[in-house]
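Chapter summary example: a protein plus zinc ion.
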Amino acid sequence: MGQSFGFRCTRCRRKTQVGGGFEGGLGCATQTVYCLKCKTVQDIVVLKWPDFHPEEQTNVPPSPCRRCKAKDYAEWNMGDSCPNCGGNMKMKDNGDRILWD
Ligand SMILES: [Zn+2]
Ligand SMILES: [Zn+2]
């Protein structure tokens, strides 16, 4: 399912492994979000479609947060700050793949 990156906050040291934005895969698309309640950054499935029929995509209701089971999210994209403390989310692996700067 697409690629994901490890991020770690340089201030509160929370870490996560996510795609870092909107990403289309085979039969579904995910968006990186953070939970408004516990601030956990995670990927959720937002769209689904039958194989080879992307024009028939439907919205998927958000699945519960991995950590606290809440269902309220805000988008989080690569380069955004840490939703927990406002610190800098640094990409952990593949430092040579950082595209913004
Ligand atoms: Zn933080
Ligand atoms: Zn949560």
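Key point: The beta strands are 5-9, 15-18, 22-24, 28-35, 41-48, 58-59, 73-75, 89-91.
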